[in-house]
Amino acid sequence: MPETFVYQWDTPAYKGNTSLSTGLFIDGKWVDGSNNTTIDVINPATGKVLTKIAEGTSKDVDIAVQAAHKAFDTTWGLNTPGSERGRLLYKLADLIEKHAEEFAALEALDNGKAFNWAKMADVGLSLGIWRYYAGWADKVHGETIETASNQLNYTRHEPIGACGLIVPWNFPLLIASWKLAPALATGCTVILKPSEFTPLTALLLAKLTTEAGFPAGVFNVVNGYGSVVGQALSEHPTLEKIGFTGSTLVGRKIMEAAAKSNLKKISLELGGKSPNIIFDDADLDAAVQWANHGIFFNHGQVCAAGSRIFVHAKIYDEFLRKFTEKTKELKVGDPFAPDTFQGPQVSEIQFNRVMNYIESGKAAGAKLHLGGHRIGTEGYFIAPTIFTDTTPDMKIVQEEIFGPVAAIIKFEDDDDIVAKANDTVYGLAAAVFSTNIKRALTTAHKLRAGTVWVNCYNNLAPNVPFGGFKQSGFGRDLGQHALDNYTNVKAVQVNLA
Q1: Are the C-beta atoms of residues 24 and 56 closer than 8 Å to each other?
Q2: Alpha-carbon torsion, ordered 46, 50, 54, 56, to 10 deg
Q3: Helices 316-329 and 284-296: angle between axes, nearest 10 degrees
Q4: What's the CATH number for 275-462?
């Protein structure tokens, strides 16, 4: 039997405890992995082992897929009315709300994000998503199509079947909710693969699905490495769908595996190198606040992070001064301290990756304006970092760093800035700051990105779709469009003659 992770918090931000199975959750049961091996889960604030979780294998994936197929064919899918699926999703949402602080504490513990931000953003937004899709569960409708008086033609939007959902470590609960909620609402069954760095909230969520009353096999969790469990899901011959958020490199591998196996349906939300354009007529103080949030929120570990900040030459010096002052105010430290804004990077691997990019920027001739160093001797803390005097060919301008590193870039011409902003292989998000709404929207419409924020940054809502252009992927999470990821459209044609 799997071990149980027991932990008690006694911190200024949160006092409480948790008790979780560290196993795989398959067909409504907690089990060890087939090889009886484990993976260490590290506390990034200390670099020390928190617990060990069961390591899944391709055999475990196969068992979970079989359980998901069985549930789809017998107790879920078209066997369960949308109203009942919605009721269970609402009940699960209520349980998430009941355990909101425990979820936030687990995110702070194995991810390193500030507890207060995790509670407000990660858990708060997740609640909204579960309730939004609970409302959709009995409203996924087809249409009747007129062709001739002696014919009846209509469409059905049917659940696609068993789905593999692979989620990253930067927003473990939130991005899992992005995919799980619409999948379950439409009647699909799921196998969730959380990141091996941040599995704890997925395990708590699995525990609560049992309490909510979901039938066995509808919701499964297989912990493990991407190269094993993620690959096994992607190339599984009977899995109907893969939903993935992560790097473009891995997204390519998933596409290849899907093509070589059974042409399963896939949706990919991938990397970004998002431009944030600050025009000379912007509300400067608001632009500084939002731009700072846009790059340094969640330690810069955001796929849509506004890491390329383009500032008009007329306000460049004043913006840089105010942006620098704001950045210096950010509190970096213990995720459970009430005033912490930025905790550690998620892992030693990510810490080293970010530091290597910082060294690359310096070596290429960019000016290190602020930060660029490790904070403390324990854990994976990096000072918020600002580069100036960059050139378009530098790695820190072209490649996704996924850390608290901003490049401030001067521009003068409105038409030229669109070309500069679009000079990236990515197209996930962008932002424009201007008090001239015509100028702002004209620019926004020319930017090649799936989301463009105007006079704000990192604003998300459950009913607004999110996804990318170009190498940032395809398909949409959130909103009504996410339902398309998990349904097939069937046309039924009846001859009445």
Answers
A1: yes
A2: -20
A3: 50
A4: 3.40.309.10
Q: Does domain 4-270+472-492 have CATH number 3.40.605.10?
A: yes
Summarised one tens digit per residue, pLDDT across range 293-323 is: 999 999 999 999 999 999 999 999 999 999 9
CA angle 16, 20, 26 (to 5 degrees): 150
Residue 111 dihedral angles phi and psi, to the nearest 5°? -105, -35
The total of other beta-carbon atoms located within 10 Å of residue 332's CB is 20
86, 164, 182, 190, 269 from 187: Cα distances, Å: 10, 14, 9, 10, 22
Say how far apart CA 367 and CA 370 lie, in whole Å: 9
- Domain boundaries for CATH 3.40.605.10 within the chain: 4-270+472-492
Secondary-structure breakdown of the chain: helix, strand, coil percentages, each rounded to the nearest 5: 40, 25, 35
pLDDT the model gives residue 497: 83
- Whether 143 is catalytic: no
Query: Do the Cβ atoms of 178 and 477 come closer than 8 Å?
Result: yes
pTM exceeding the 0.85 threshold for the entire prediction: yes
Question: Of 55, 235, 269, 400, which one is the catalytic site residue?
Answer: 269
Structure confidence by residue, pLDDT tens digits, 172-189: 999 999 999 999 999 999
